[in-house]
Amino acid sequence: MKHESVETNAGLLIVLTLAVISVGGLVEIVPLFYIDDTVEEVDGVRPYTPLEQRGRDIYIREGCYACHSQMVRPFRDEMLRYGNYSLAAESQYDYPFQWGSKRTGPDLARVGGKYSNEWQVQHLIDPQSLVPESIMPGYPWLAETPLDMSDLEDRMIALKRVGVPYSLTEEEYERNVEKYGEEHARMFDINRAEENLIEQAQAENFDGNSATITEMDAIVAYMQVLGTMVDFSEYDDGHFAEFR
């Protein structure tokens, strides 16, 4: 059959298109019925602390996701540049997750710890001062705007309802102690959310200004944790292939 015959016959083109889509869909869907889980088994992945979560809220509010994906694809060039490809497990507490294919700037899935807090603050205030060729706009108001904590508990309760294991009861708290350890379990306690946020912000002083807790503290705290939860040196090459 000549390709021209397909292009000039609308009915045949529709039938063949549906056939290709059906085969492609079956190839993608059928294997899911034969695997136990699509989320990899890894240690270290945890929910965000109240400060990190508020930073994530601000990151989304400012539209950072429009230019930066958080998904390292399983290709050699991407892994050489960014590190191990992204795992579904790393985004299991992200609502919504930041995977995608649009990159005006670099992928940020593993930006945590790559630069200092000072670098991140300066880059957000004036990107061109550090990367002259950057087309990223500055966000200087983040360093000047006090962080709103008035609805912190409500935000965490909403996330709890969709599956993030923040705790409200003693029983939930004890489960988190068993799974994440005492230090992290305390950070996930909704009843002490504001206290925990202030404690982390003052201890680590992300924006370099200890006088107040700003939106800059929160967004830098969020970016500094990205990609740092899983220690890939603990796993053999190909360990995660069975989940793909």
TrEMBL record:
It comes from Thioalkalivibrio halophilus. It comes from the Bacteria. This is Cytochrome c oxidase, cbb3-type subunit II. Residues 50-227 form the Cytochrome c domain. InterPro entries: Cyt_c-like_dom, Cyt_c-like_dom_sf, Cyt_c_oxidase_monohaem-su/FixO. The chain crosses the membrane at residues 12-34. The keyword Cytoplasm does not apply. Keywords: Heme, Iron, Membrane, Metal-binding, Transmembrane, Transmembrane helix. It holds the Pfam family FixO. One of its GO terms (molecular function) is electron transfer activity.
